[in-house]
Structure formats: C-alpha cells, structure tokens
Known about the structure:
Elements lengths: L8 H5 L28 H24 L10 H10 L33 H28 L3 H26 L3 H20 L4 H17 L1 H30 L6 H38 L11 H9 L4 H25 L6 H20 L4 H8 L3 H15 L1 H7 L2 H27 L4 H36 L1 H7 L1 H31 L8
Helix pairs in contact: 2-8, 2-11, 4-5, 4-8, 4-16, 4-17, 5-6, 5-7, 5-16, 7-17, 8-9, 8-17, 9-10, 9-11, 9-13, 9-17, 11-12, 13-14, 15-19, 16-17, 17-18, 18-19
Amino acid sequence: MSSSSSHSPCAESGNPSPHPAAPAGGRPGPGAWPARRRCRDVFWLVLFLLHLLLFGGILALAGLNRFRIADRFNITPYLQHGHSNNHTAAPPSAGAPEPATPGPVVTVSKHKAQPSELTETYWKYYGAAGAVGAVLAWAWLAAAAGKRDGGRVVMRAAVHSLTAYLAVVSVLCFWGNHFFWAVALAVGAALHFLYVMSVIDRFPFTMLVLQKAVRMVWELPDVMRVAYAFVLVMLCWMALWSFGVSGIVAMEIPNRGQWWLVLALSVSLFWMGAILSNTVHVIVSGMVFLVLVHGGQAAASMPPKPLRKSLQYAVTTSFGSICYGSLFTAAIRTLRWEIRGVRSKIGNNECLLCCVDFLFHIVETLVRFFNKYAYVQVTVNGQSFNRSARDAWELFQSTGVEALIAYDCSGAVLLMSTILGGLITGTCTGVWTYYTQSDKAIIVGSTSMLIGMILVGLTVVVVESAVTSIYICYAEDPRLIQRWDPEFFEQMSETLHQRLQYRSSRVRQILNGRLDHLPSTSSI
C-alpha cells in the first residue's frame, strides 16, 4: 500500500487488479502479504501482558476475599485502618482508665456476615448484564447483516432513540434521588441532540456508506463468526472481572474507596475491550481489503487462507500495535467528531471560531498518528501503528479523500448503537439491583453499562471495519470500488467533488473576509 503518493501501484500498472507479488523495493504490494513480518510496538504488548497479570491477580483476590465467607483474607480492617487513623482520639490524661486491648479498629466475623456482604450477592447482577449484552450484540449484528436493508433500519433506530432513552434514564435517576447521574445523563441527551442536528444533512451519505459496508459483511459470513468468537472471549474475561468487582462492591470501604477501585478496574476493562474490538477490526478490515483488491473471495490471485492469516498476524506480530492504538484512538475520534460538529455551526463568530480552530488543529495533529485506518495498514503491511496511521492519513490528504471522510458520520452512528446497547444493559441491571440492593444500584448499573457497550462494540466493529477498508481502497485506486459497485463509485465520486468544491469556496470566503479587514494603503 502506498503511503503518501496520490497514485497507487494499481494505477501505474494500468491494471485494476494489483499483482500479488511484492515490488522490487521490498515493500509488499497492496494485494500481497509481506514475505516476512516483525513484531511491532513490543513495549505496549509487554505492558498489556503485565497489566493482565496484575489486574487478574487483584480481581481474583478481591473476589475470593468475600466468596461464601466474608473477609476470607482479613483485608477489610487494613482498608479501614487508614480512615480510622484520621479520627484517632487524644492521649488519655492521668488517672484515666486503661484503654482496651489493642487490636484492629474494625473486626468482621467470618461466620456472621450478612448475605449483602458476599461476592455472589452482586455477581449475579453482572452475570445478567453479560447475558443481556451478549444477546444485544448477537441481535444487532444479525439484524444489521441478516438482510440487505436491515442495517439502515437498525442504525436509524439507534440515532433517533438514543436522545429519548438518555432522557428517560435521566428521569429515573431523578426519581431515585441520584441527582449527579440525572444531570449528567440529561446533559448527554442535550449534547447528542445538538450533535445530530448539526450533522443531519450528512446522514443520507452516511447511511449509504453504512448500507454498502453491511452488504460487504453480508457477503462474508466468516467475519461474523469471528465477531461472535471474540464476544465469547470477552465474556470469559468479564467473568473474572465481574467476580473481582463484586467482591469490591461487597466491601465497606470509606471515602468512596469503592468508586475509585471500580473506576481503575473499569479503565482496565475498557482497554481490554478496545484491544479485542480492534483485533476484530484488524482481522475483518484486512479480509475486506483483500476481497476488494482481488475482486472477490474466489479470485485466483487471492492469498491462500486470508482469514486465518489475518487472525494469525493480528494476535502475534501486530498485537503490540493493536494494544498501543487501543489506548488513544477511541478518545481522539470522539473528541474530533464533537469539535467538527460544533465547528460547522459556528458561523461568523470570529472569537469562538478562533478558539475552536485551535482545538481542531490540535486534534487533527493527534489524528495523524492515531486513527482507525491504521489498522488496515497494520494487518496488510505489518507496519507499526504510528507509521501505519501516518501513511493512511497522508494517503487520504494527497488524494482528497480526507474531505469525504470528514463528511461521513458512520463512526458516530455506530458509536450511538454501542452506547444504546450499553444503556439498555445498564438499565436492566440497575433496575433489578435497585429493588434488591438499592444503595448499590448506581455502581452496579454504571459498570453494567460498560459491559454492554463493550459486548455490542465487538459486533458493531465488523461494519466499521468494512467502512474503513472501503475508504482505503478508494484512496488507493478508485477503480477497485468501481469494479465492486459502479453505482456506489459514482455516488462517492460525486460527493467527493461537492466536498472539495465546498472547501475551496469556504477558503475563498475566509480569505476575502480577512482581506476586507486589512487597512487600506495608498498605491505607490
């Protein structure tokens, strides 16, 4: 795959089907696997493995500590000892009676523990959350890829129902006197509504791209089985994670210590979920890219066993790059969507436009090194993550396809589906917890929402991977898309032409406006 050149190897050869052999320079062509791969971003792979060992041990210890017997390892007195030191009484005066025999400030009987103090009391809620999230993940992918028009219906439903669902959950939080979460969800509903209104004119093209991506997934049923397999892998890790978190929720830790511990473990779970999701992204996008480049899965030039090799590379030589990109890509993408939505609706407010442009350029610089299109380069060319991201972004900018990507909101629409799946999971679990353990409803419901988002995201990423590969192939050689779907190629080309014209007119408008404010000078 080319890095920054606007002409692909396909265009230079005059043949729409790239040759599978690598060029003389040693770099593999866009349709061939590299002859030899090296492990990339090894530091992040080692960091992830150490993270697994550390957090896995913490989760096992926390869960076993209150499994069937409260405070099996006598941890609670040490957690509460630091809090009790802040309230130590003054030294006794002369003549005062002898203090009681020294010992732990808080003693917990192992045999008189209440059921609410045990791990299994809360583990069942997380088991229900995992079941609901897995069912939603299966249903979303089955509905989206089961029929040719199913994806459009599912994604439109997610876009239009997310604001209402956020508002309903906010009302439930007000009713339960959880004012912080109620306000947070109400603000989220308002921001989502404003974002949808700011980009609603882009939805026809976005839905067109998503529909074609769903069609590609529909033609490759093997990639759906990959997503389901990774959902099972994620459920196995979630079993351990929820076991440990249930033990922490059952503890009585002062100064909101439970929330801080659960927050740290939630960040760990999010990273694990992002890594598995991006592993699916690498596998599926590599497969879709090869199908588009070679003109079909049954083409003679197709590398042997492409799905198996893509899976092999994803979990071996490219896994360090996946771990690295998973730390930053999601947050940067979300911030970029929000800034773009605000920037497009500012108008002529020069001060606000200047501030937003400053943030926009910072995020654009980060996007150059952290973007989802890097994963196609990672799986096909075996490059490091930063180099893959830089090459992909330079390719888009040199061909003008970056204007089309900026106009497309498919990533945001798929994120809405993920958030909606998480909200449904969190609501089901939170309501059940409220009627049995009302004081733990928020902490269980919020963590269950994260579980649902991760599980649904593992299936949503299949469609996102197809979108990514479509744009990479269009930038490499538009004839690849023309051969696959001529009508879609014409629609993409027309939209790209319109966006480039719009950018040119906007630049002229800004320059003319600045020239008008310059002081007039007498001609020499």
